[in-house]
From TrEMBL:
Domain N-acetyltransferase positions: 27-162
A molecular function (GO) term: acyltransferase activity, transferring groups other than amino-acyl groups
Pfam families: Acetyltransf_7 (PF13508)
Organism annotation: Diplogelasinospora grovesii
Lineage: Eukaryota, Fungi, Dikarya, Ascomycota, Pezizomycotina
Source species, domain of life: Eukaryota
Protein name: GNAT family
């Protein structure tokens, strides 16, 4: 898949770009798509703490102002990879605004992220993980992800934990 631009996977008016949305866009995409809200400080660290990311812009192709200029693109989806660049990769922050869901955008993001891993990971089999909320499970299964249980079980620190 091309690194940027229109693809056969993208509906008209949508363009996938490598990189990360701005901090306000990131916070909006998370909150509006139902992901746990994050703080500005947490969002600021995303580009430097990620291995790769992408986002989708939308501009209606049949809309323009009186001067014939097209409206400013709107960020409508995103995804990123946390990893070491060698063998371990974790897909995170998969989000598509509700009014743009069910158009194949999440599928395009996942396929793009997986293609980037395949093209850029060190030789050998990469280990790719993600945590799947119920609405995304069918999307991830269609793209080759399987439930890791009972061999592995995702775990997280409890809320309010602190170092002693």
């Amino acid at each position: 898949m091309a690194a940027e631009g229109k693809s056969s996977l993208m509906p008209r008016g949508y363009t996938l770009h490598p990189g990360f949305p701005s901090v306000p866009e990131y916070l909006h995409l998370r909150a509006a798509s139902g992901l746990t809200p994050k703080t500005e400080a947490q969002a600021t660290a995303i580009p430097s703490g990620s291995w790769y990311g992408c986002y989708i812009d939308f501009v209606p192709e049949d809309v323009g102002d009186a001067d014939g200029e097209r409206p400013k693109p709107v960020r409508v989806g995103m995804g990123r990879i946390i990893g070491d660049g060698g063998w371990y990769f974790h897909i995170a922050d998969m989000a598509v605004l509700p009014e743009h869901q069910r158009k194949g955008l999440g599928d395009a993001i996942v396929k793009h992220l997986l293609a980037h891993i395949k093209a850029n990971a060190a030789e050998g089999d990469p280990y790719v993980t993600l945590f799947a909320d119920p609405p995304g499970r069918k999307l991830y299964a269609r793209n080759g992800f399987q439930d890791a249980a009972p061999l592995q079980l995702g775990m997280q620190m409890g809320k309010g934990w602190h170092l002693q």
